[in-house]
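Tutorial handout. Part one gives the primary structure; part two gives the three-dimensional structure as tokens.
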Amino acid sequence: MAEPRPGRWSRRALIGGAVSLAGAAAYVGVHRRDRGGPHSEYFLAVARALAAAGVARPVMVIDRARLAANIAAVRQTLAATHLATRIVVKSLPVPGLLDAVSASLGTERCMVFNGPMVLDTLKWKPTADLLLGKPLPAVEVARVLDASPGVALASPQWLADGVPRLHEYAAIARARGIRLRVNLEIDVGLHRGGLAGPADVAAALDAIAGVPELQFSGLMGYDPHVPKMPRPESAYRAVVQSYGAALDVVRARIGPESTAGLTLNTAGSPTYRLHVGDPNANEVAIGSAFVKPRDFDLETLSHHVPAAFIATPVLKVVDPLRIPGLEALGGLFRALDANAERGFFVYGGHWLAEPESPPGLEYSPIYGRSSNQELLTGSHSVSLRPNDYVFLRPTQSEAVLLQFGDLLVYENGAITDHWPTFPVSA
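Part two.
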């Protein structure tokens, strides 16, 4: 059970609140119907493969066929465009995953988000073309440059969000006798920072022109907010307009012919599909779409399928479910909610994930969360026994894929490979 927080709830308050809640629910006639059921044939097949492989701990499973389908979806979506694909490494921090995507799409362009991953990505592919996805503190940039001579040789595009950062990067380059490529982060509507408009872009370009240690390499405008806006089409048009205004400043400063060699990066997994007719950018960043976690169940990714699942064994089954301190109310809770009849304690837990199979499992808001033995509740229609598997779908990939050691690759009814991950980094 989750550790109690001193002073947060007294036992009397908890019981009183539960009684009041239960009484109110009973009064208005609320009853949650049974949502439980067995594993689908798909998850039964994955469970058989895990059992055959002797898996008895929490693991992350990658479905190779589904991964291939998502790669094909990207290829088909962008086939008739001028857009290149830049792989977002933080979302796929696994050499095996990167190999599959890179080889299938024929790209070595990568977006990385921290110093250790710059080094890890260059170990994976020394010829990778790296673009930073966020501005790093100057101290971190210096540390990465000093950690390996290969970093300076690879010449990553360091992301800068304003003139002060450019001056810091210039000082780093000057002290080491090198030249740094810098890409400018522009705010195209997310409002998470970056250059806010043409005047800021002009000031940044002037700052770069004033120091020989910096080389302007392009623009980056990230727009994951678009699908969540009340009018996504209008929001997308605003993104294109903002990006175009920034690019107009670039053309005026360095000449239209000089933009051909620039990295003009945009989009992200939620929005890459919208940019097929983009008049400004020459590449899109894509990562999570290749495995499609739950947070990416968006209309813009309806042509993608989930390809990553957490599988964990059931350790204990409690029937009927009893909540400590509220045992006397167990019958009432179960009468009001058929999905609280049984309890299933699984190996590990508290991941950024939601129960996927069998259907009807859910977390208990009363019992709380646990990273040791997570409680999932379900109805009598969920016939799990100890040693059976529960499958959860990650809500995101970028942090969760690093939590389980080697990823297990599922293909043709069997576990066919183990993919080591990059070391954990933030």
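Part three, for discussion. Residues 1-29 have pLDDT under 50 and may be disordered. The first helix runs from residue 11 to 28.
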